[in-house]
């Protein structure tokens, strides 16, 4: 299968000097890449590619796009649905790496909600896709099974999130520590299922080239 790259993915920032980092942003279910453009603009650096990726399938819950359907979703079929689309997610990331000439060590995945779910689950693949994964209001489908080698994980979650409970981030970080990883987790008081200036500040810090990778 050829690497996949949507023409509807939005390049928010193209480097004006030698590129050091590829940042891929993944939106939530029923949303679109345009929704993360302001976030991407805030992350712009002259040595950084910033791309807001469009999920591949039209949402079956209304407008927007999705990686997998959340209609009738439960703890069992969530795993199956993610596994079914993970090869496409992997190839989407690899296509942008091929285009930019940057490998996994220079790649960061930052997802919100369903985008965070896909980014997190990609860390359980045998070959790492990125050196940094930032999950905003996300979760693993099931508790992480392995600590990804060479990938720093950062969880950012609203304490009042009514869609995906912040306990998912806290528990995943604890599980990863037990497996030998060193994730960070920030639970933000007063924030629901969304992104605010505090999330942006944490995301910016996590993506900084000199940020810790362990």
Task: Please characterize this protein's 3D structure.
- Helix content is 30%, strand content 20%.
- It is of the alpha/beta class.
- The strands form 2 sheets. The protein has a 7-stranded mixed sheet with strand order 1-3-2-6-7-8-9, sandwiched between helices. A two-stranded antiparallel sheet has the order 4-5.
- The mean pLDDT is 93.
Structural topology:
Elements: E1 10-13, E2 21-26, H1 37-42, E3 48-53, E4 57-58, E5 65-66, H2 75-100, E6 107-112, H3 114-122, E7 132-136, E8 152-158, H4 167-178, E9 184-188, H5 197-207
Parallel strand pairs: 2-3, 2-6, 6-7, 7-8, 8-9
Antiparallel strand pairs: 1-3, 4-5
| Element string (H = helix, E = strand) | EEHEEEHEHEEHEH
Compute the separation of the termini in Å.
33 Å
Please give the number of β-strands. 9
What share of residues are in beta strands?
A: 15-25%
Main sheet: which strands, in order across?
1-3-2-6-7-8-9
Low-confidence stretches: none
The average pLDDT value, as a whole number, equals 93
For the largest beta-sheet, the strand count, sense and barrel status come to: 7 strands, mixed
Count of runs of 4 or more consecutive helical residues: 5
Helix content range = 25-40%
**Rg over CA atoms:** 16 Å
SS content category? alpha/beta
What global shape is seen?
globular
């Amino acid at each position: 299968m050829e690497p996949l790259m949507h023409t509807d993915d939005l390049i928010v920032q193209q480097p004006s000097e030698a590129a050091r980092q590829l940042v891929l942003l993944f939106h939530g279910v029923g949303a679109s890449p345009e929704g993360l453009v302001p976030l991407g603009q805030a992350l712009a650096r002259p040595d950084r590619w910033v791309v807001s990726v469009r999920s591949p399938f039209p949402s079956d819950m209304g407008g927007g796009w999705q990686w997998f359907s959340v209609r009738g979703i439960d703890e069992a079929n969530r795993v199956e649905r993610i596994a079914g689309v993970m090869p496409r997610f992997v190839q989407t990331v690899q296509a942008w790496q091929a285009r930019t000439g940057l490998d996994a060590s220079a790649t960061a995945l930052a997802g919100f909600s369903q985008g965070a779910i896909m980014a997190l689950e990609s860390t359980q693949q045998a070959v790492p896709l990125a050196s940094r994964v930032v999950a905003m209001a996300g979760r693993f489908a099931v508790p992480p099974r392995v600590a990804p080698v060479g990938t720093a994980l950062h969880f950012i979650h609203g304490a009042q999130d009514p869609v995906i409970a912040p306990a998912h981030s806290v528990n995943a970080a604890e599980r990863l520590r037990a497996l030998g990883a060193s994730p960070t987790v920030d639970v933000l008081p007063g924030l629901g299922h969304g992104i605010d200036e505090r999330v942006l500040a944490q995301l910016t810090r996590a993506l900084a080239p000199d940020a810790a990778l362990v």
